[in-house]
Structures are given as C-alpha cells and as structure tokens.
Amino acid sequence: MTPPSVPPVLIPGLPPLEWGFRTGRAFADAGVLVLLAYASTDWVIDPLGSPPVLNACPLGFAAPATFSLSARVSVTGSRTAFDAPVLMVWRDETHWAKLCFERTPTGEVGPVTVVNNGATSDDANAYTLPQDKDDHMWLRLSRVAEGTFVCHASRDGKWWDFVRIFRVSGSDWRVGFLAQSPTGPGCAARFEDIRLGAAPTNLRDGS
Predict the structure, then answer these.
(1) In the predicted model, what is the mean pLDDT of the chain?
(2) Does domain 18-197 have CATH number 3.40.50.620?
C-alpha cells in the first residue's frame, strides 16, 4: 500500500523522507525530527498467533548498499508500555526489522530488536538502563552487506554496544524512523543528532 502523495520531510544530511504504507504525523526543525504515534499503533506479527498489528507509520528513504543511520532518541512526556522511538528497515509488511528504545511493562527502558523475515516476528530485549539515566539513548542501524544488518545502542553516543546482527531476504530496502504506542494513547518520539554515514567495519569493539 502506498500513501497518498504528500511533501517529503527534510532533515539535513539525509535524502528526503517519505511515508511508507500510510501517512503519519511528523515535525522537523533544525535537524530534529519528532514523530507522533497514534494510539494503539505498532509494527509486529505476533509469533503466538495474535493478529498482526501493522498500523504504525514508517518514514524513510531508499537504503544505500551499505550505511549506518544513528540518532539520539527519546520520548517527550509520559510513556506507556512499549512506547518507543524506532529505527527501522523494511521491504514489505513481512520483511522488516526495527531497533527500538522501548519501555517494558515493568517500567524499565532499553534497546529492543524485532526482526520479521516472513511469517512471524522474532523479538529480543538487549538490556535496560539505570533509572537515573533512562530518559534517552542513541540507536544505530547499519547495513553491512547485501541482506545483512546490524543493530547497536549507546548510552553516550560514543561507545556503541553490539546488540544484534541478522539477515533478511530480498532487496529494495528502505530505512528510516517510526513511532509506536501499542498499549497507550500515543506518544511523541524525538530523534536528534541524526547521522547517516558509512557502515561500521568492526561490529564488536565499541566503534
């Protein structure tokens, strides 16, 4: 499904950002991107068999052959369970992956990855942040080879923790941003210090 034609969202250093599947709500100013998630929005195909929920609004651009996309991410205001700013790659509704800064049902926050390479989603939590340092973090999603993607997260934007490497089939990938609020009334996901650059060459040395 292609959304109706709307003007692209412009962020310095990135190609023009266009909506995938449906048009969402976005604000961009001075290199800061804010995506507003509607209530009860997510992008997941439950491996336990619940109906797929694919009603969030990805915003992105054609993925280069190799790249690294990173941003400092946060949620403005209060958060409900699973509210998150997300870096995402997608080909269609059954081939995609997302790296989230997510709030768990117990109130902790940290990086979460979800990979969907066909029928259902593979969901994994990496770690949680201390409560006095859990209002933001940096996420980085990279494509290091054809079909091979890597997720990193950082507490300070300098040292990058290795989170996950995975392969997904197909070509014509897009990469970008998403906001989700699966159990709540919606949220405002904030992305700043957004950078598009070369893929990392050493995936596990913190660089």
Answers:
(1) 95
(2) no
